[in-house]
Write a structure and sequence with these properties.
single chain, 404 residues, alpha/beta, Nucleotidyltransferase, domain 5, 2 domains, 5-stranded mixed beta sheet, globular
Length: 404
């Protein structure tokens, strides 16, 4: 096997994907993905170090042998699939994002073939035969069951009727002929953040991750494992109701979520929340703002983070409300999970180190913890943000082999 670095593919950058290989946030706490993940993967360590370019560079390549085996992680998105490879010793063989078109808008069967192509592409790049693959981890946006069956009502990325109730995991497993382990994409990223941060002590800790993108994804990890729930819907943090008193400005309407809920976390802390709820109000307070002339409200919403990075007053009002919403969400989590760590990821923090530090600080400021919790809790950004979903999917597949 050989170790490779990838450049960006022709896929567009979805909200929540980094635009470069940066991983550390310039002094902001990030999970320590530089340290060995040995304990989190049993006796098989995952270790990495920073390359001179700032990306991740794995320590040493593995020579291919007849006894070698790997797992593959696939992160399925609305535009692109990303893929990674984890070898039998617990080392990632890919140190950069590798993407290919997902074709989800072309229907389930085309999308399954696109995942197969993504798998074959990444295996070919690292010099591993498909016969060496023991298991595949698959992450997709939800809602979907614990077994990877898309909701009977469809989903944002799976809106066409053929997707409704489609067994995505099962279809890919039948196509590949190896076990496919499913997690929603929020859970997969949360799993990677947890193991990257805690390393050999991952099984001793719990964590909560909130991932701000088009919606608000997330995941809950206990003792190093994803909490899925009876129906696979655990960790849907975006649809937890949060208090709005003190968060909304005078006269600001109570936000509504696309799911039909009122005043849930996603109605504020998401791109959809900016477009539907926050930006229309704040443009009434800043009627001469450039965003009022940016075209559609959807186009303007996508520019808010960049304006915030430039310390624009309107944008900071919106992003400050999002940070407060996440803090209130984490406050709720602290009372029923009491996690060791709170992780934040997604497009909202794909900005300059100064902005990320400000945003994470505001989240921490609005998370009300008891004195005992403050002594032990950590707030950090999800590391390797563009690769976290695929890496988490690979880790889930790796862990599953112990149960097979």
């Amino acid at each position: 096997m050989r170790q490779v670095s990838f450049q960006r593919s022709l896929c567009a950058y979805p909200l929540g994907m980094a635009k470069d290989g940066d991983t550390d946030g310039g002094g902001i706490p990030t999970p320590e993905s530089d340290q060995s993940l040995a304990g989190s993967l049993g006796s098989r360590p995952v270790s990495s170090r920073r390359s001179r370019s700032g990306g991740r560079e794995d320590e040493g390549s593995r020579a291919s042998t007849s006894s070698s085996w790997v797992v593959v992680g696939l992160d399925n998105g609305g535009t692109c699939n990303s893929a990674t490879v984890l070898d039998h010793s617990g080392q990632f063989l890919v140190d950069r994002l590798v993407e290919s078109p997902s074709h989800v808008q072309d229907g389930p069967h085309v999308a399954v073939e696109a995942l197969v192509e993504a798998l074959d592409h990444v295996l070919g790049a690292v010099g591993v035969a498909r016969e060496s693959v023991r298991a595949v981890g698959l992450g997709t946006p939800g809602p979907a069951s614990a077994d990877g069956v898309i909701s009977s009502k469809g989903a944002t990325n799976f809106s066409q009727t053929p997707w409704h109730g489609f067994d995505f995991r099962g279809a890919l497993e039948r196509r590949l002929g190896v076990p496919v382990i499913y997690n929603n994409d929020g859970n997969a990223a949360a799993l990677y953040a947890h193991h990257a941060h805690f390393g050999s002590e991952a099984a001793l800790h719990s964590s909560v991750s909130a991932i701000v993108g088009t919606g608000l994804g997330g995941g809950v990890i206990e003792a190093g494992r994803v909490i899925r729930g009876a129906a696979g819907m655990a960790g849907e943090l975006g649809h937890v109701h949060i208090p709005m008193q003190g968060l909304l400005a005078d006269g600001q309407p109570v936000p509504k979520c696309k799911c039909g809920f009122v005043a849930d976390a996603e109605s504020v802390a998401s791109l959809a929340g900016i477009e539907k709820n926050l930006l229309p109000y704040w443009l009434t307070r800043f009627p001469d703002h450039k965003l009022a002339r940016a075209g559609s409200i959807g186009e303007a919403a996508k520019l808010v983070r960049d304006y915030g990075d430039s310390e624009d007053p309107l944008a900071l009002e919106i992003l400050g409300q999002q940070a407060m919403a996440l803090g209130r969400l984490f406050t709720i989590a602290s009372n029923f999970i009491d996690p060791s760590a709170y992780f934040v990821g997604g497009g909202v923090v794909e900005a300059s180190p100064k902005f990320r530090e400000w945003f994470l600080g505001r989240v921490r400021e609005h998370t009300s913890l008891r004195e005992e919790q403050l002594k032990v809790a950590t707030f950090a950004l999800i590391p390797d943000r563009d690769m976290a979903g695929a890496r988490g999917a690979a880790l889930a597949a790796f862990h599953s082999l112990d149960a097979l």
